[in-house]
Amino acid sequence: MSQHNALHRRQALKFLGAPLMLPLGGTAVGSLLTGCGGGSDDSAAPTASFASASFVAMAAPSLTTPADMAKTLVNSTLMVKFSDDSSQGYSLSYAPFFTTGDLVPDGKGGTILAGGYVDFAGKPIVDATVAGKERQFFSDSPDGTSLLKLDNPTVTGIKGKAVFAVVQFEYTTWAQDGKTDMYGKLPSPIAVLTLDQDQTTGKLTLVKYHNVDTAPAMGLWITCGSSLSPWGTHLSSEEYEPDAFTIASNTMFKAYSQNLFGDATKANPYHYGHLPEVTVNPDGTGTIKKHYCLGRISHELIQVMPDNRTALMGDDATNGGFFMFVADKEKDLSAGSLYVAKFGAGFSLDPAAAGAPLTWIKLGSATSAEIKALADTLKPTDIMDVSNTDPADPSFTKIWLGGKVQWVRVKAGMDKAAAFLETHRYAALKGGSMAFTKMEGTTVNIKDKVAYSALQNMQSSMVKGNAAYNPDYNIGIDKALNAGGVLAHTLSTGQKDSAGGTINSDWVPSLTKTLLVGEDLATPDALGNLANSDKIGAPDNLKFSEKLRTLFIGEDSSYHVNNFVWAYNVDTKALTRIVSMPSGAEATGLGVVDDLNGWTYITSNFQHPGDWGTPLHNVVKATLDPLVRANYKDRFGAQVGYLTGAVTSVNLAKKTV
């Protein structure tokens, strides 16, 4: 190409430069999605604007190259097409910020343990399960990640521009003895990363790691997926809220309380199962507050709509529901109204089906402060009567909870407490369609006014005839689908709740259809996959890119030998595998930022590499286990990072210059 055109193309490619398209090897790329022109002697030249993007798929790794199965593998390509029919290709790869257990810079001239656990007072929690090798616990399960910028950062040592990431750590799988199960027994850390963004390449380099003090939130319980709010805060999660009625026998929660407070009985179950929000400060620190008015459910990943008020919430539970919160004020989740969906007839796994209409049952309105006050003072028996057997009393209502039947009755004057502290039971009592199994991440396609929700699997309470199935919920399938699927919700204005009250939102789901489903295999394939590896399997994280018109899907599958990240173009309907995680690891931390100082980023983490399942990993375990152990700290480490890209091909259309 001519020098003139070469300059033009470099200008035209900057925006997708880094993680999505960081040009490795030092070649700068110029603005892509924002078009080009200006700022050089080429500004008078004809320009081409961004037209579309697509991905060229990578094959799933196999035992012919076992090293590929034991690491994060990215052999996919992003192809970008311009309005003049020219195109640019980027070969994608993976760049980690750190592996958990690394010593990383604390911004004060020292180091800090990445993913390290601390107690309520900020002191390290020590793993003493191997005598003579005592060490601070660190997580093997990084999860939700938000990437953002602030207008006036004050962190020192930045050579380009300061970018911040908030990363939360869901749990750690095992103590170092390899025998002591640590799931849910440690208070989840959450960290702010300060990253130095190179303005030539878009590359991100970690310069400061700061542990957020979670004491104001009473510690955090099993933080899973997350999202970036429209106003630039990190919306965290607390998954699998502890059942207050059975807390006395919950050994996991007692261990959590012991590790957090040094007292096995101090933690209050009503302080967990809520929505924490992290605000990043200009100096690279962070502050946290917990919102108690969005319902106490299995929070996985919420999505706030463009109105800055409406939040859609998945519910990662058996007999889970689809919830919505509408805040009283924009950019403020501390007060509002909580709703649960009631599905009409028509739910189907067939993407061609018409879909099921939704109505919304209002559960109540509250402020976070008033529900926190109730949580501080009430016991579960103050709120509800609960029986596991039929009390033969018509004042009780039969519900389904966690795959089992219960009978519940709200005490006089306790409806608000029940709605916000016993949300699962109360939503079922009020007629919500509490039928889903593991509704995970939710995201939004703003242009088309469609939200998407991932169902990791479709089992148990969703299957007709199952003991957890209730036909009144109108969510029933004939046979379990372990591989799960993705739902699409049409978002509408002018909606009313089931009592006739106006819902103050223009982003209310009114119809639900199935977008994508996986495929269970009748018998395992040669590698051991239990679900078709060329289709989604147990989708979890979801993020949508408005610029790329692409839904990104991360897997948490017990049915794929390697979990994948997929790109689904909502216009072409093409589903493309773009990342393969280390075998036994879950794909987490999925995030997309279309424009961050002129660059586009896709974040991606993974958890618990080498977490071998039976029979899923029977074929590969002997070969892969030593490789995974060598790569990731004997399987105790996991990585936080992002995708990068190098220019691989240029196709310039003919045009007059």
Question: Can you characterise this structure?
Answer:
Helix content is 10%, strand content 35%. It has 8 helices and 36 strands.
Features of this protein?
single chain, 657 residues, mainly beta, 9-stranded antiparallel sheet, 6-stranded antiparallel sheet, 36 strands, 10% helix, 35% strand, globular, disordered N terminus
Strand content: 35-45%
The outline comes out as: globular
Number of strands: 36
Question: Which bin fits the share of residues in helices?
Answer: under 10%
| Poorly predicted residue ranges | 1-46
Q: In order across it, which strands form the biggest sheet?
A: 16-17-19-20-21-29-28-27-26
Q: Give Rg in angstroms.
A: 24 Å
- Main sheet specs: 9 strands, antiparallel
Mean pLDDT score, rounded?
A: 91
Count the DSSP helices: 8
The rounded distance between the terminal residues' Cα atoms is: 12 Å
- The secondary-structure class comes to mainly beta
Outline of this structure?
With 657 residues, this protein is mainly beta. Helix content is 10%, strand content 35%.
Q: How would you summarize the topology of this molecule?
A:
Elements: H1 3-12, E1 50-56, H2 66-69, E2 77-82, E3 87-99, E4 103-105, E5 111-113, E6 126-127, E7 135-136, E8 142-148, E9 161-169, E10 190-197, E11 204-211, E12 227-228, E13 234-235, H3 251-261, E14 275-280, E15 286-291, E16 302-304, E17 310-313, E18 318-320, E19 323-329, E20 332-343, E21 356-367, H4 368-377, H5 380-383, E22 384-387, E23 397-401, E24 404-410, H6 415-421, H7 423-429, E25 436-437, E26 439-445, E27 450-455, E28 485-492, E29 508-517, E30 539-545, E31 550-555, E32 564-569, E33 575-580, E34 586-596, E35 599-607, H8 621-631, E36 639-651
Antiparallel strand pairs: 1-2, 2-3, 3-36, 4-5, 6-7, 8-9, 9-10, 10-11, 12-13, 13-14, 14-15, 16-17, 17-19, 18-25, 19-20, 20-21, 21-29, 22-24, 23-24, 26-27, 27-28, 28-29, 30-31, 31-32, 32-33, 34-35, 35-36
Helix pairs in contact: 6-7
